[in-house]
Amino acid sequence: MAANQVEIHRFNPAHIESGFAEALFHVADTGFQTQSPWTVKQIQDTLDTESSLLHYATIAGTVVGFIMASVTLDMVDVFIVVVSEEYKKRSIGTKLFEALIDYCHKNDIAEIILETRITNTPAIGLYERVGFQQIGLRKAYYSSPIEDAILMKKEIGEEINDC
Fold it and tell me: Which of 28, 44, 67, 131 could be joined to 36 by an S-S link, Cβ 3.0–4.6 Å?
């Protein structure tokens, strides 16, 4: 395996070493334009929740991106998708979504929902490429700065568009 090859993993608490939440926080802190919208404690608390679902990307053993969500009955609600700044534009986000979509297919999950800032055009482009459609708007959903959120959904069973 090449040293710079991306590997996608699904979170398994039994195989995670201490400091994992801190590694995820570092990715989020470097991957967002300002800073991480989540704290280390929020990440750890989410990982400790039974309904949490996490896929993460590594290169040479270092976490470089992740997608964190919650599973409720037959739906996945994505909380956060982020790739470290230095690893962007390498299709890591697409690979994370492919892993999430594959998980949903195998577990009879009917849909994935998420929201994003209305101005986050790179994220919106990624979500549309992997099959999400805009289904609504949440006014003043985000703070710092206050901004509307686009609500998006992907029905499982739809094919991923050519990326």
Answer: 28
Q: Is the pTM of this model over 0.85?
A: yes
Domains in the chain, CATH or no CATH each: 6-155 (3.40.630.30)
Per residue of the chain (163 residues), what is the pLDDT tens digit? 455 799 999 998 777 777 899 999 999 988 887 777 788 899 989 998 999 999 999 999 999 999 999 999 899 999 999 999 999 989 999 999 999 999 999 999 999 999 999 999 999 999 999 999 999 999 998 887 899 999 999 999 755 544 4
Q: Give the CA distances from residue 112 to residues 41, 66, 161, in Å, rounded to whole numbers and listed in that order.
A: 25, 16, 16
